[in-house]
Amino acid sequence: MAKNPSRRSFMKKTAVAGAAAVFAPTIIPAKAFGANDRINAAVLGVNGRGQTHIASLMVQDNVQVTTLCDPDMRLLKERQKSFKEKYKADVALEQDLRKVYDNPDIDVVSIAMPNHWHSLATIWACQAGKDVYVEKPGSHNIAEGRKMVEAAYKYDRIVQHGVQLRSSPAVQEAIQLMRDGYIGKVYMARGLVFRMRGDIGDKGFSPIPEGVDYDLWTGPAPKRPFTENLVHYNWHWHWDYGNGDVGNQGIHETDLCQWGLDVGLPTKITSMGGKFLWKDCKETPELLTSIYHYPEEDKIIQFEVRPWLTNNEGGATVGNIFYGDKGYIVIDGYDKYSSFLGKDNTPGKSNSDGGQAASGVDRGLGGTDAHFENFIKAVRTRDSSILNGPVETAHLSSALAHLGNIAYRLDRVLNFDPKSEKFVNDAEADAMLTRNYRKGFEVPDVV
């Protein structure tokens, strides 16, 4: 199986940002677990992806989900009922994640909240002595992603990013082929996100539903009047809370582009796109094409988000294509790859014949259970080096999406310094590396 780039190689590619020390909670020693010790878990955010977190945690050996947390008590009660029916066990409910973090009986948390909460929830968890599985994207902006990395190191926590492609045997096998030179010098990656994204309309403002703590839902982001266009899913298409599809489904593919090319952050970025189909309230582009240039590595990434009816490329609609001087490899979704060699595109190695890489991997799961298994193993051993999706991936793959979005919003080519993680002589672009946080929900400096 292919090994992920080490933490050292990740950190060589990006420098730790400025170190303004501020007050932080006392560091809580990491709890040691034996093979027979039960790990208690809380799942934060239970509308969509959080349901998968519950299921994946509950199939792990000696792991128990003891608490569900969400600002919407209506959802919590529904999930509590279904949890009882499925697992014949009770589960506690909590609306405020801070109370979850205050509970000394909770060992790990999995975060499936909206994007604008991911970094702050992770940092708070690290400060509270919890290990973390956080959904993609790890950050809502570049600056807070770096702070996530710093928090994981300072508080010695296990932080796994939800890029479960890295735990897929098929994808690992494809990456190893590239590392072994199977398609020659790999110079380009193309990420694809061709998804059916329809018209969401505009539902306007409405009273906050009973049982919803909208202040907590908003957290660090600006607090807009309540609308069902945000709660619970369509926040993805609004800049204050989401990052469009490149920062949604696309993070799996931005991460895979970086992993396959063995690169970090680029030095030149350009993007173009827009809304072409729907006159709805989405703010993020329906279609977005971004290009990321790595002149020192002599490599390039092309990334495309495309909505509605579309073709596939090499059989993939959501996936990645890697180009070398001897051929190319197509990674289709989460668990399938194929290769083509030479100028005649002669079919090469693949896992479509049910080979070792495909065995035991359900189509579409992409190793989710295996990704949680990898996380729990790291928690038990206190060994972050074995993580398939370490905290650096939460920062770097998310940052790639953010850079593309910034170039799109500013409508110009941007020059970026990966070491300082700042733009080159561009104060307007630098201002978009972070955000203004609501009082009480500031993302802290932790170094």
TrEMBL record:
Pfam families the record matches: GFO_IDH_MocA, GFO_IDH_MocA_C2
Gfo/Idh/MocA-like oxidoreductase N-terminal domain boundaries: 39-162
Domain of life: Bacteria
Gene3D superfamilies: Dihydrodipicolinate Reductase, domain 2, NAD(P)-binding Rossmann-like Domain
UniProt domain Gfo/Idh/MocA-like oxidoreductase bacterial type C-terminal: residue ranges: 206-261, 369-442
UniProt cross-references to SUPFAM superfamilies, sorted A to Z: Glyceraldehyde-3-phosphate dehydrogenase-like, C-terminal domain, NAD(P)-binding Rossmann-fold domains
Protein name: Gfo/Idh/MocA family oxidoreductase
